[in-house]
Write a structure and sequence with these properties.
CATH architecture: 5 Propeller
Order of helices and strands: EEEEEEEEEEEEEEEEEEEHEEEH
Radius of gyration: 18 Å
Largest sheet: 5 strands, antiparallel
Structural class: mainly beta
Number of domains: 1
Low-confidence stretches: none
Bound molecules: beta-D-mannopyranose
Shape: globular
Length: 311
Amino acid sequence: MNNKNFKELFKRYEGNPILTPENWPYEAGAVFNPGAIKFNDEVLLLVRVEDKQGHSHLTIARSKDGKTNWQINPAPALTAKQEYGEAIFGLEDPRITWLEDRQEYIITCVSFFDGVAGSPPGISLMSTRDFLNFNHLGQKLMPPNKDASLFPKTVNGYYVLIHRPIIEGRADIWVSFSKDLDFWGKDRVLIPSRHRSWDCSRVGLGPPPIETPDGWLIIYHGARDTASGTIYRVGLALLDLETLEVIHQAKDWVFGPKEMYEKVGDVDNIVFPCGTVVDEKTNELLVYYGAADSVVSLAIAKLDDILDYLK
Ligand code: BMA
């Protein structure tokens, strides 16, 4: 197969980037890495906004078609709270899951451990039903940790959390289980980084796992440190619906920095998806991603094409 015949799985939306610091209603240094969910017939993004101090908070942007006419809230929805152990350096990279059995949305994001030497990154959980009132559930799991998301349903009676601890210098994707969202265990490696591959330096979950008839679809980012900096790209895997074993994993990356807004920014050569929305009518997957740690962009894929490719 040559590049001409290669079918592009993820097509960039022609109006990219869809959100930038220039169209933000208040002063912002960068807007990127948004969580995404369908809420009240709209696409709701929880966008990571980095202020000019270099600290992040999360702000809501909404759109009817998920592409145009974004309504951006004039104030943050979520900021770090010291009473929950979160240091002032902020909240980053949210993922949003609707938990059927609790009838509420759970947000997982990166926060920093207050009062711990070096303020290492960890995982905070928040719940909400209306995206107006938020319940802070505090920091979970040991730091350093990032890139966490719940599965949208329990598996064999357990809530399941994907996360990315750093252990002995390795940054692999792990999975842990809980009965109450508070205490986590049965931890195991789910997707390791691959030696000398495009995802050799670090891997981390992107958007929350997507349930399909063929298994849980995992969209993840892989990083490779190179002589001219790190490149973040996107890979795919499929997990068994029950055992959560990896049944397929693409060898190649499927989406990487190509356009200027992905190649040049605060951090060059980054595509970093944290949220998807499925358009039930077209079976299209809208993938929202941060580009070059500066702006928000959108890529669109056919769910069937992704599954065919993986199988
Ligand atoms: C990761 C995270 C992301 C960021 C990416 C690229 O470690 O911190 O927030 O987009 O690096 O800089």
